[in-house]
Amino acid sequence: MIFKLTQEQEAVQKLVREFVEKEVAPGVAERDEKEDFAPTYELLMKMGKLGLLGLPYPKEYGGAGGDQIAYVLAGLEINKVDASLGCSYSVAISLSAWPIFHYGNEAQRQKYSVPMFKGEKLGAFALTEPNAGSDSGASECTAVLEGDHYILNGTKIFCTNAGFADIYVVFAMTDPSKGVKGISAFIVEKDTPGFNFMKQERKMGIRATVQREIVMENVKVPKENLLGKEGDGFKIAMTTLDGGRIGIAAQGAGIAFGAYEYARKYAMQRVQFGKPIAAQQAIAFKLADMITKAEASLLLSLEAAYLKDSGQKYGMHAAMAKMFATDSAAQNASEAVQILGGHGFLRDHPVERMMRDAKITQIYEGTNEIQKVVISGHILR
Ligand code: CAA
Questions:
Q1: pLDDT tens for residues 231-246?
Q2: Which of 105, 193, 243, 307 lies at 20 to 30 Å from 352 by C-alpha?
Q3: Which secondary structure element, helix H or strand E, spans residue 118, and what is its range?
Q4: Could you give the CA distance from residue 214 to residue 345 in angstroms, rounded to a whole number?
Q5: 3-class DSSP state of 215
Q6: Superfamily of domain 7-117
Q7: 155, 165, 111, 144: which is closest to 223 by C-alpha?
Q8: Are strands 167-173 and 183-189 parallel, antiparallel or unpaired?
Q9: Architecture per CATH, 123-234
Q10: What spacing in Å lies between the alpha carbon of 137 and ligand 1's midpoint?
Q11: Cα(197)–Cα(337) distance, integer angstroms
């Protein structure tokens, strides 16, 4: 693995760090408090103008020509400060833009990928259902071909960016008799009649992003919006999640670093028993553990990104990075609250938000228990 970043990768990190300092950090607490996605959406649109919504995609399709390592670095910087924005960003880049670009034909790429990469259109990914969470193959949504359209019915839940996104990657059964091999993937446009968005979910954390249920009632999707072939849906979902987990690993690393950095600064300044609490070994050792976990999270994320960039298999490494980094995020955020003591429990400091935000990263894009299913599946073949 190459440890030295290229000039382009360093430039992306600098660009995102400056954007986060100037545009994201100032309103982060207020956006969380208001549980309002609209300002987060505005930030995403600004990121689009900087080329960040097409970051790891080719220039000839309107992308920025970057790679997965640059994408990890961008995710790291965003999630140090705002995991809500980080969630929506990761869904846009990994879960919606990637399957359309990777599995789409040229017409689909021109129609959907180009505006997504240019930041003109936002994407979403609709896989999870009330009875198909970890068991994503148990889909009950249906898609029936009638003439030149598929008719989609059923319910999707926890769909990030729903209601704001323009383009949705939706999974539904075209042939229930074939089990997971009967699932297909479709590109659905926001305003398609019968594609109904329910209320915004109220959550423990990542409150400034949006998740909604989508109820599909006879949604007419043109035949040309089938992604890949009929029956490819499960493979498309699984490979998409392999890459998505790199984004969530970067999110975990970001939160782990953010919590560490805030707690370190606080511990250097907060005086008790006549000296900064950082001078107490109990606190110093916590900080030593926290930086180690944050660094290891980043390295695992970069390794998975490097494997993907260099055309090697990365599913297992993405799962390891996702699991380790998000567990580290949860541990570091909790320890940061502990270091700040009673102050850490107040909303005056970002660490209580980080603790709430970190929890979901252990759950979404495959619970960390599912990551162990994936990892053990790879090593025990
Ligand atoms: N790549 C390619 N093919 C894959 C694959 C992968 N990563 N994983 C499985 N497959 C293939 C298998 O090879 C198999 O095909 P064959 O029969 O031809 O060999 C087929 O798919 C079925 O595989 P499994 O029997 O392993 O499938 P399973 O039903 O046991 O499920 C699972 C495996 C890993 C548990 C999977 O269901 C899973 O990943 N679940 C978690 C779902 C998840 O991550 N959901 C997150 C939702 S998105 C989200 O959170 C978004 C957000 O808002 C942030």
A1: 999 999 999 999 999 9
A2: 243
A3: none
A4: 35
A5: strand
A6: Acyl-CoA dehydrogenase/oxidase, N-terminal domain (1.10.540.10)
A7: 144
A8: antiparallel
A9: Beta Barrel (2.40)
A10: 7
A11: 36
Q: How far is the CA of 282 from the centre of ligand 1 (A)?
A: 42
* Position 346 confidence tier, pLDDT thresholds 50, 70, 90: very high
10 Å Cβ neighbour count for 342? Answer: 7
d(CA 98, CA 267): 42
CA-to-CA distance for 13 and 16, rounded, in angstroms? 5
**Whether the Cβ atoms of residue 63 and residue 48 lie closer than 8 Å to each other:** no
Q: Which atom of ligand 1 is nearest to the CA of 135?
A: 37
For residue 158 and ligand 1, the question of a CB distance below 6 A is answered with yes
Considering only CA atoms, which residue is closest to atom 12 of ligand 1?
235
The per-residue pLDDT for 3 is 80
Query: pTM here?
Result: 0.98
- Quickly name the fold that domain 237-379 has: Butyryl-CoA Dehydrogenase, subunit A; domain 3 (1.20.140)
167-173 and 123-126: which strand pairing? parallel
Q: Which atom of ligand 1 is nearest to the CA of 158?
A: 53
**Residue 193 banded pLDDT, cuts 50, 70, 90:** very high
Residue 266 confidence class, pLDDT cut points 50, 70, 90: very high
Give the C-alpha separation, 79 to 91, whole Å.
Answer: 13
For residue 235 and ligand 1, the question of a CB distance below 6 A is answered with yes
**187 within ligand 1 shell (Cβ under 6 A):** no
Residue 365 bears catalytic tag:
yes
